[in-house]
């Protein structure tokens, strides 16, 4: 099960993330950033990877792009959030107490994350993951 235990997250990752959150809160006082996961076990990652895919010819094939959750399968390819210590964070933004999924609302926080040295998933050309950031080594 995914965890929000910050103790198993790379300290440099959490320091940069926390500094970005504080800067974002000052700039956007009616917005909040809530951590959804600081670590996701590989088996749970694989479950997310299978969404929108079917097993065909010995491989998982994307059949429904609208259901795709991730391109990292957690087994053959592990993401920063699947490692220990974790180098990734999944988060959600709330405005006036309500969760927001409009990707454009994540851009200001994404830019602040980048300013603090983190890679923001919203910059991915293949699969924009606006609610994810990581420390690239």
Please describe what this structure looks like.
- By secondary structure, the chain is an alpha+beta fold.
- It has a single domain (6-46, 80-134), classed as Muramoyl-pentapeptide Carboxypeptidase, domain 2 (2-Layer Sandwich).
- The protein contains 3 helices and 7 strands.
- The protein has helices spanning 11-27, 42-50, 107-115; strands spanning 31-37, 53-56, 59-62, 88-95, 98-100, 119-120, 132-134.
- A hairpin with a 2-residue loop joins strand 4 (88-95) and strand 5 (98-100).
- Helix 1 (11-27) crosses helix 3.
- The chain is globular, with a radius of gyration of 15 Å.
What tags apply to this protein structure?
137 residues; five-stranded antiparallel beta sheet; Muramoyl-pentapeptide Carboxypeptidase, domain 2; alpha+beta; two-stranded antiparallel sheet; 7 strands; 26% helix; globular; 23% strand
Describe the secondary structure blueprint for this structure.
Layout: H1 11-27, E1 31-37, H2 42-50, E2 53-56, E3 59-62, E4 88-95, E5 98-100, H3 107-115, E6 119-120, E7 132-134
Shape: globular
**What profile does the largest beta sheet have?**
5 strands, antiparallel
CATH topology: Muramoyl-pentapeptide Carboxypeptidase, domain 2
Termini separation comes to 25 Å
Q: Averaged pLDDT, please?
A: 95
- Residue share in β-strands: 15-25%
Order of helices and strands: HEHEEEEHEE
Structural class: alpha+beta
